[in-house]
# Entry
Amino acid sequence: MSSTHHTRLSVIRGDITEQRVDAIVNAANSSLLGGGGVDGAVHRKGGEAILEECRRLRAAHYGGGLPTGRAVATTAGLLPARWVIHTVGPVYSASEDRSALLASCFTESLGVAHELGAESVAFPAISTGVFRWPMDDAARIAAEAIHGSEVRVPEVRLVLFDDRALAAFRRAFGTT
Ligand code: ADP
# Structure
């Protein structure tokens, strides 16, 4: 664990749905109505309450879905966290630089966590699954966005699902 901007930062291997933090971040899709990967696990383990709140968000503010790079919170249902912050990562493109949108997922989620009064927040490797972002580059963008954020959340945890992702994020964050 290292300290930057008075934030306790850790990079660990694990399952995002099992984190005992105030808020976990979901690599959602813009429909907010569920998908595979992290999203599938969040809804499967968190239960119907998360989906119900997502449906209400769709009916109210996000009729067209949640835009890429934005973040919105719901209950965490049956998960150990208090809130799920849903953010939509960009699909990787080799022909167009979408890094700012990926960085925005981290900064917007930190902003939402701060507004909620969350003291701890856990992130997965957004966009590196179905959305195919190269792991090392995604890790670099995550590190730059979190280190550059104006918003202070006391504990930030990066939760990686496998050894390859863990190694990439440890390199990018300079942790061992
Ligand atoms: P995206 O659509 O943004 O690419 P995915 O959910 O497909 O999101 O994958 C994002 C990353 O999260 C991938 O590296 C994947 O291996 C990882 N992942 C999948 N399930 C979990 C989980 N339960 N906890 C943490 N990370 C996960």
Observations:
- The mean pLDDT is 95.
